[in-house]
Amino acid sequence: MSHALSLPRVREWPPVLPVLAVLVLLGLPLTPTGESGAGPADTVSALVVLFCAIRLVRGRRRPLSRTAAVVLGLPVLGLAVAAMGASSPGTGITGLGRYLQIFVLVPAAVLLLIRGRRDFRLLAWSFVGLAVWQGAIGVHQYLTGTGASYQGEDVRAVGTFGPTDVMGMATVVSLGLVCALGLALGRAPVRQRAVAVCCALALLLPLALSFSRGAWIATAATCAVQLVFAGARRALKVSAAAVAAGVILVGGFGVGSAMLRERIDSITRVTDAPDQSVTDRYTMWAAAVGMWREQPLTGVGLKGFPDHRDSHASLALSSGSDTEGAGAAFLKQPLLSPHNMYLLVLAEQGLVGAVALIGSWLALLVCGLRGLWRARVAGTGPDCALIGTGLLVWQLIDFAYADIGGPSTVLTAVVFGTVAWWSLVGADGTGPGARQAPPAVEPALGGAEEATSR
Predict the structure, then answer these.
(1) Domain map of the chain by residue range?
(2) DSSP for 80-131?
(3) Cα dist. 10→3, 5, 13, 23 in Å?
(4) pLDDT per position as a tens digit, 176-230
(5) What is the C-alpha separation between 152 and 332, in angstroms, rounded?
(6) 94-100 contacts, C-beta under 8 A, 24 or more apart
């Protein structure tokens, strides 16, 4: 009898749970290597796509809307052309599969598996939970001197991602902070908002100890955008709390104060007196632009940047990046990408791929901002709007300093899926006069409103 009664409860589990499994696997420790191939989370992301496809077939549910299909499917055109221009068929297929995973298939699956705002908030809290976990490991690494090597000391917080993916923990913590701030600025119960505020303030420490200038810039800009749209009163309160937390952590306790000041000062010296990492980045950016000028329409082909790098880079480029610490031995990591997603797409896919892929992102941004404005005018709960828009703004800013690669890349796919739900589905149900789902009928997959509990 008890078993029979438990079956309906299992059926009522949110279909977004497989997506949460991807985030859980991103919290597990990885064997530090110099490779950036697929990990366990990538395997589960493929199963998420399969699960979504089976669910669509069995339930005979409405798939993506026409707008969603166009926006998410737009990058396929440029990717197919760039794959045909790759150095070998195997390389083209591998690159095509990776791009489809990150920017098309997994985002579409996540969009379809989110049934409404409740699932969206569950996913946002999962981002926060993963960030707190990785951030706690990062702070422990700094305090015990077991992190990645930075200025001759093993103090850089990298979480479970290791020294070969130093941006991994910084990315996770930044996205978690953006979600926590969006939840704190919403209209949830006071206790939930208080927890979100505490999480956001706590994540400031591991973000600082990541020593990632790109993550700092993207997070600061995104949080500023969220605060502006949340209103002046809330913006002042949250800003005051953030400043107080920063003064206590850095000024009061002296947490990494000397290294942090040096790292912050280096942001203003990127043109006057750049360090070697900045010089390498400028050199690779110039190399990417040179590749695009040779093949302006279609680029050099997917995964073609490493093969063409040396013929376009100047002698200022170093032989590689030194990585060490966090349980890994010394390793000279080769520089195989320009660390700028826009230039990488331009170099490998040309104008055709850049217009298609970046155009898809801009369409999501426009739809998300439109939904955010509707939510603000209607006076509805702004948390989903602030989270969805904030995640995309952070990703687009961060792409100016980073690109895809490494175990944490699958998180980008989940982010784009979360953003796609808000921009293409959730935003349409926030304005005045939006149609509501029937009280006792579960909406089709991709519907904007949640089904009432039965």
Answers:
(1) 15-27+37-275+332-429
(2) HHHHHTSSSHHHHHHHHHHHHIIIIIHHHHHHHH--SHHHHHHHHHHHHHHH
(3) 11, 10, 5, 21
(4) 999 999 999 888 888 998 999 999 999 999 999 988 888 999 999 999 999 888 8
(5) 15
(6) 94/302, 94/303, 95/301, 95/302, 95/303, 95/348, 96/302, 98/404, 99/75, 99/302, 100/76
Sort strands 153-156 and 328-333 into parallel, antiparallel or unpaired.
unpaired
Quick check: 193 and 183 in contact, CB under 8 A?
yes
Conformation bin of residue 335: beta by default, left when phi > 0, alpha when psi is -120 to 50 = beta
Q: Taking the CB of residue 444, how many other CB atoms lie within 10 A of it?
A: 15
Place of tokens 């077991």: 146
Cα separation, 384 vs 118, whole angstroms:
10
User: What would the DSSP string read from start to end of 124-149?
Assistant: HHHHHHHHHHHHHHHHHHHHHT-SEE
With residue 332 as reference, give the H or E element that holds it.
strand 328-333
For residue 380, give the DSSP letter: -
Q: Is 140 exposed, middle or buried (0-12, 13-18, 19+ CB in 10 A)?
A: middle
Distance CA 397, CA 393 (A): 6
Residue tagged 């953030």 (tokens): 242
The residue length of the chain stands at 454
Residue ranges in 145-212 assigned as alpha helix (H): 167-184, 190-209
List residues bridging with 154 in a β-sheet.
149
Q: Would you state the structure tokens that stand for residue 60, as one six-digit string?
A: 């005979």
Strand arrangement of the beta sheet that strand 148-150 belongs to: 153-156, 148-150, 321-325, 328-333
- Across the strands, what pairs with 332? 322
Angle at the Cα of 305 (from 303 to 310), degrees rounded to 5? Answer: 145
Rounded Cα gap, residues 189 and 46, in angstroms: 36
pLDDT tens column, 295-318: 999 999 999 998 888 888 777 777
CA distance 105 to 109: 6
* Measured distance CA(204)–CA(54) in Å, rounded: 41
Is this model's pTM higher than 0.85 or not?
A: yes
Using CA atoms, how far apart are residues 336 and 25, in angstroms rounded to an integer? 26
